[in-house]
Amino acid sequence: MEVKPKIAISSCLVGQEVRFDGGHKHFRYATESLATYFDFVPLCPEVAIGLGIPRPTIRLIKGENDTTEAVSNADRTIRYTEALSAYGRKTAPALHEVSGYILKKDSPSCGMARVKVYQNNDGPPDRTGVGIYANEIMSAHPNLPIEEEGRLNDTRLRENFLERVFLYHRWLQLMEGGVDSNALVKFHTVQKFAILAHDEPAYRELGRIVAGVSTSDIEARCMDYISLLMRAMKVLTTPKKHANVLMHIMGFFKESLAAEDKAELLRLIDAHREGLVPVIVPITLVNYFRKRHPSAYIDGQTYLEPHPPELMLRNML
């Protein structure tokens, strides 16, 4: 891509010493593997609202009317809920150019989910909280791909997140250049097999949205489209879904294949369906055959290369 996607990220994850203890939580996968392909936008809401380094820790507690409050562990009367919320509301509009966000897990300000929430009586915490700042960002940007660094150690979640990031980047580029019905149809066309690999019902509904678009309602249709698309792409792929898509793709050039080539491709697709080989194995053979038997429709499909192959995201799926 001519322009690198931007990813917002908790500052401590890129090695900045902004945590309560003056340290960091360097997420080396981001700085060593992803930095080649993305521009990072580091953010630390706790420092941004004026808290020092080092500083007393913050925790989430149950407030009145079942609300969640961020308070100082040193003095529970000191509350940071409104300051963190206000910073989130202030920051959200400035994130219109970012294509993803990597948050610090378990953080009372940045945690995406399962953050500890304590009861006022100091009983054991439950894992039902969302970071105060993170909640504002997720509410303002429901389509933005967001993950925590801990979950990105899971190969399936990592591949899913980065596929969504690159997709959302392409969408932002489309919107920046101005969109009409033809541009939306073209965008959807090259994305079809990728969607099918995630969520077949959404694949069909997205087709109906695009088919019904007109100049008069293009803006509303685009909002409906991207909202459903990003929800669909969050559904994890499976070997069965990949095998289904690969069989569809094979149908575009199977008549051109020699019998032994067709048999080998079918064998590898079945092997992936059974979990015997990663999906990159049949995809590599598909890419080889499509170069010998070009198809403009298949060649344009983002499914075959949704992210840089150097990231090797599909090698363990």
Attribute tags:
elongated; 317 residues; four-stranded parallel β-sheet; 12 helices; alpha/beta; 8 strands; 45% helix
Describe the structure.
- The protein is of the alpha/beta class and 317 residues long.
- It has helices at 28-34, 45-48, 81-91, 132-140, 155-177, 181-196, 200-211, 218-234, 239-250, 259-273, 280-292, 296-299; strands at residues 6-10, 39-43, 58-62, 68-72, 98-103, 115-118, 126-129, 146-148.
- It has 3 domains: 6-153, no CATH class; 155-234; 239-311, no CATH class.
- A 4-stranded parallel beta sheet has the order 2-1-5-8. Strands 4-3-6-7 form a 4-stranded mixed beta sheet, with no helix packed on it.
- The mean pLDDT is 95.
Write the layout of secondary structure elements.
Layout: E1 6-10, H1 28-34, E2 39-43, H2 45-48, E3 58-62, E4 68-72, H3 81-91, E5 98-103, E6 115-118, E7 126-129, H4 132-140, E8 146-148, H5 155-177, H6 181-196, H7 200-211, H8 218-234, H9 239-250, H10 259-273, H11 280-292, H12 296-299
Radius of gyration: 22 Å
Please identify the structural class as seen in this structure.
Answer: alpha/beta
Tally the helices: 12
What's the helical proportion of residues? 40-55%
Low-pLDDT residue spans: none
Please trace the helix and strand order, writing H or E for each element.
Answer: EHEHEEHEEEHEHHHHHHHH
DSSP E strands, number: 8
- Determine the mean pLDDT: 95
Based on Cα principal axes, name the global outline.
elongated
Question: Quick gist of this model?
Answer:
The protein is of the alpha/beta class. Helix content is 45%, strand content 12%.
